[in-house]
Amino acid sequence: MQISARADYAVRALVELAADSARPLTCEGIASAQDIPFRFLKSVFRDLRSAGLVRSQRGCEGGYWLGRDAATITVAEVMTAVDGEFFTVRGVRPEALGYPGAASGLPDLWRGVESAAQALLARTTIGDLAERGARAGAEDGGAGRARDASAAVTA
């Protein structure tokens, strides 16, 4: 299974917003903090705003905030907001697959993989990841925040 750059950047950006929710953050600041290409992140934020996951304000005091409490935004929801379909095999949903002969049981495997991934990502919230990052940052003086947020999904 491959996680798209859009999904990775979206989750990282939302975790950054959750970690510093007292003020709006600029796209430039988030891109710099997370080492994400600025132009790409702007595109990701359009999708996140459309999905209601972030809100924005223009002007010198503007920037982005989470659209809802971080504890209510799941990683699965973020991935779907930026990528569309959650899980496909060659662009086809697992329930629509059919293989001939000896491979006829394979769609069941793909549905199982989708179900397991969906379950993990649906119970992992942006708030969980921000909290894990804050704990890791406190333990190592801040250097591990982004690293831990990325690794937390596998935990």
Can you put this structure into words, describing what you see?
This protein has seven helices and two strands; from the N terminus they run αααββαααα. It is mainly alpha-helical. The chain has a domain at 5-84 and 126-145: Winged helix-like DNA-binding domain superfamily/Winged helix DNA-binding domain (Arc Repressor Mutant, subunit A, Orthogonal Bundle). The chain has a two-stranded antiparallel sheet with strand order 1-2. Helix 1 packs across helix 2 (27-34), helix 1 (5-19) packs across helix 6 (126-140) and helix 6 (126-140) packs across helix 7.
How would you sum up this structure in a few lines?
One of its GO terms (molecular function) is DNA-binding transcription factor activity. The chain contains seven helices and two strands; from the N terminus they run αααββαααα. With 155 residues, it is mainly alpha-helical.
